[in-house]
């Protein structure tokens, strides 16, 4: 028997505290199972995000038994007396509820609870020691994926997992080396971080280089925008993408927990698997409480199938693993972690500018990280975070005859210190330093170079009357030292020094109980990257002959972002508009010239790095409605121009968006998505336009909550109609379209 009902709120002895909670919708399914006595089991999820509600407080009125939900949102009461009873559910930020039910002898009653979150109006209190990213990283994310939303969107790369979020697009040269583009900003203008730290890979420098972060073991992915983004970098007009793994565990789990995932897909005959876990090791003398975290992943796929045929040389084989251990104390935590990531993948060719048979890339990244967190009982500093990391990255680009075309090697050292000076609101001051040794091999075209960088930053947030105010500032220094001086097509190769200031101001306030507004004003600073300064030679995997510009000066930008937000009983809506103006906007300009001696028929288009004034402006609209069907949609538009002659910038995504509908029925969830883009006819020099398209995806998932675990099986079909379409930001769109119909079967368990 299945019953679906909405219960009215009832008072409880703790009304003074729990009156802050809102309504809950409960789906009750009674299924008899043999056993001794009666049992009550179930799970609790957030009605908006779908994420498990962790550490919710439960109490059985008649049986007099308390309980809590675990990290999968699951709970269980065993060996209960049969008869009527009432379950009380309480969790800060959600509705207190009293739920009557009746137990039958030797039966198990299963409850699937969906709690509605509410906005709280309280004096600011900072909760220390939360699991995962620091509070300053979780605050006011422009985009945040976790829980059920993350499980639904997980794909082979970070870019694919995020590409349907507002303002985001994907730059690619095939399935493996895709990277996010945010509000038209990509490459060196978009930091992609892991636990707030740089990975040391080269994914920002070229479209053929892959991001060395595994999404399958991530606990969350978010876009950080505004003053808090200055904690991580100076070039943050679009925002910062952060992937949360907590590789170094900074909190002690109550028990062993984690997740296991397996996925198979048809479009490339591919499969992947992942395992992540956290475990407490209490009482190990003389170390006290020990937290252990580990993960591992693998992925293999053959060539991708498209409606226009097979996209040859797009195989991928990836392996990754990490292990971290920490001593967790009341006032101090010390931890260390290490890991590796290896990926072998192909870049297609066989056309003008590409190698006849494509190029194979083999990359390897190994890293060590250490973290110390101190929470003094007294004094002006409420918390001090110290971090250090070492990364060794190497990759080779091999031609079809296994001859090495280009090899890159980077050894990076990072260290940072961040002090918090308030226990109620973020007031932070920090220091960040980096040492980077860069070298190339084989047909090398960038001189060996050492980079040293340092930054001082500060972020402050406060509530002033009806306004929430955030301010941040950052000063960056960079010294670039080539091993040898030279004169090339890029100019005079020599030592360069750069310095600059970036800043951000955020103002927000509530206009009513349901409406609020936010204003961001920002200044960015970005010194030129090594590739932009000193490149000179063929880069077969990037289909280009690249020529740097040793005389480039730093890029600076000014940006304004105005947002209007609505959140009501049945849904939410966000509208934002932004305008960014750049001086010396640095990009690789297609000169229209051909270099001979490499590539198909010995020809490669020549690209030269230039710095020009530019502007990017756009609009974003996103919203969700929670009716008997959950609706979600977004629309993003950005336009990039060079004011000189009002010429379009190259590689700017067209107007794009999606509409998603989800229907829940007990433990089942059904979803249908329509996503598409308009024609892009505002193209840069020698850039071809792309046609508009509309593509449909479908998904069905079964979630089975069990004691201390949540099991989920899903079947999805991407591009249901096998529609032929092309991504404007794909460097290989002239060869073949995007992937065709793809059946994906996934199993994940959270324990």
Describe the protein:
The chain is mainly β. It folds into two domains: 114 residues, Carboxypeptidase-like, regulatory domain (Immunoglobulin-like, Sandwich); 616 residues, TonB-dependent receptor, beta-barrel domain (Maltoporin, Chain A, Beta Barrel). It contains five helices and 44 strands. The protein has a 22-stranded antiparallel β-barrel. The chain has a five-stranded mixed beta sheet with strand order 1-2-9-3-6, with no helix packed on it. A hairpin with a 2-residue loop joins β42 and β43. The N terminus is likely disordered.
The assigned CATH architecture of the largest domain is Beta Barrel
| Radius of gyration over C-alpha positions, nearest whole angstrom | 27 Å
Number of helices: 5
| Mean pLDDT figure | 85
Helix percent band: under 10%
Which labels suit this protein?
Immunoglobulin-like; about 750 residues; globular; single chain; 22-stranded antiparallel barrel; 5 helices; 2 domains; 44 strands; mainly beta; about 5% helix; Maltoporin, Chain A
In short:
The protein is mainly β and 751 residues long. The protein contains five helices and 44 strands. The chain has a 22-stranded antiparallel beta barrel. A five-stranded mixed β-sheet has the order 1-2-9-3-6, with no helix packed on it. The chain has a four-stranded antiparallel β-sheet with strand order 5-4-7-8, with no helix packed on it.
Secondary-structure blueprint:
Elements: E1 2-6, H1 15-18, E2 24-31, E3 38-46, E4 57-60, E5 65-68, E6 74-80, E7 83-90, E8 97-103, E9 108-115, H2 135-138, E10 143-145, H3 147-153, H4 158-162, E11 168-171, E12 179-182, E13 191-194, E14 220-224, E15 240-244, E16 257-265, E17 270-284, E18 288-301, E19 304-306, E20 309-311, E21 316-328, E22 332-347, E23 359-374, E24 383-398, E25 404-420, E26 427-442, E27 449-464, E28 467-482, E29 486-488, E30 491-493, E31 496-510, E32 515-526, H5 530-534, E33 536-539, E34 544-547, E35 555-567, E36 571-596, E37 603-626, E38 630-642, E39 647-648, E40 656-665, E41 668-677, E42 693-706, E43 709-718, E44 742-750
Parallel strand pairs: 3-9, 13-15, 34-37
Antiparallel strand pairs: 1-2, 2-9, 3-6, 4-5, 4-7, 7-8, 10-14, 11-12, 14-15, 16-17, 16-44, 17-18, 18-21, 19-20, 21-22, 22-23, 23-24, 24-25, 25-26, 26-27, 27-28, 28-31, 29-30, 31-32, 32-35, 33-34, 35-36, 36-37, 37-38, 38-39, 38-40, 40-41, 41-42, 42-43, 43-44
